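Archive record:
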Amino acid sequence: MNEQIPGAAGEPGETEVFDASAVAEDEIIVGDDFDGDVTDEERLRAMRSNLDGFDLEDDDLAIIGEDGEFLGFSEPLAEALPVVAIVGRPNVGKSALVNRILGRREAVVEDVPGVTRDRVSYAAEWLDTRFTLVDTGGWEPDARGIDASVALQAEVAIELCDVVMFVVDSRVGPTATDERVVQLLRRTNKPVFLVANKVDDAVLEPEVAQLWSLGLGEPHPVSALHGRGVADLLDLVVDALPDESAVAQPKLAGPRRVALLGRPNVGKSSLLNKAAGEERVVVNELSGTTRDPVDEQVEIAGRVWTFVDTAGIRRRVHLQKGADFYASLRTAAALEKAEVAVVLIDVTQEISDQDLRIIDLVLESGRALVLAFNKWDLLDDDRRRYLEREIEQDLAHVDWAPRVNISARTGRHLEKLVPALEAALESWDTRIPTAKFNAFVAELVQEHPHPLRGGKQPRILFGTQVQNRPPTFVLFTSGFLDPGYRRFIQRRLRERYGFEGTPIVLNMRIRERRQRR
């Protein structure tokens, strides 16, 4: 009897002729003795019995005995924590102060002005008091272009906070820009702490006296770089915080986290702004505008999501320098904290290796995936024909990912993201009971056994799903399964259970037969 096994040798779609009569008697595949009336539980017992003659480890036994369902996690209701905003003109050390307060290098810092552009929120704590710390871009009067957008974000942060930390450069002294910021702060009627940064030692403290002229009371000398004076400052800030924030609203419990990824200038920030219904992040034609991941809760078609705008991933991360390098690292960290990634692809440009590397990054992280083809309103008929060919050739390995055609600029078909995200997350959360999975495996190997290798045929002894998010399966086998056969199993899993929008991880545990004594 000859059997053709799709994808068993090499790439998907290849076939290999298998002579079942050549299989040794002790290598008969499980499932040959079953008929259509056998229950899933009976198949499960039969598959388990295959393991009796093989050497198993302690963690193997723990996996084999796990039949229970996996429970998804849910996030508790977030509190409306007090908000502290850090503002000031460019390059006075605001982000360095943020990192000092957080105790880790979270905000992007570089010795050039204008690194931070959006208002970025962080969870902070001091003396058992939790609060939200907001980093902002440098504020300048009469700013133009992207600097005007950055200044606007700083002004919004002042309005949406309970306490302001106004950072100035003690070595430069009060400037005209600082005086303009003071005028802005006086209109808010909120507690303001004047922070004199870059006072690295006691010798520099007399220079702080000139900052009294700003009219904001006593300046507090600190060194964000070395941590000098920061603890005393935080003691005062915490005492000024209200018990309940006047501006923060408690977030809804459990909104799913969606990371927006793509090349620089592909439209990630525009998509976030359109979904939020406001200019939440800076948008500019300048490539690489976003540098810090920005979280924002948005509502689309009645569903609440947490969208995370990220920095555009450039061609070679290891060759980047300064802020762009650290922004790329933070983009990868934001992806790890997300549940599903929306990869934006510019349809007006050819699908590039850069786009494919970003998709591979999502696959390696194990997150659910949705492909959003942006700038669809700019697509002409000639480009459409080339795009269809590129999708067929370059994106064949993620043909299971939902695809949505949108325009982030106009909001066209933005609501279609919701069913795509829901389908991807549902598949990402899917758990197949052990009995059903082994019934699937038994049926599969009976119809399409693994081809012979060196006169032997590997057996699948037992299988189980050990994890969801993403769906991860372990197959106990008597030998190595060809990559083509593993891809064949994955394709059949998708045909049977869907798994739209999620990668599938298929691991093997090769176990040898116990030696007879």
The two ends are 36 Å apart (CA to CA). The domain at 83-106+124-133+153-240 is CATH 3.40.50.300 (Rossmann fold).
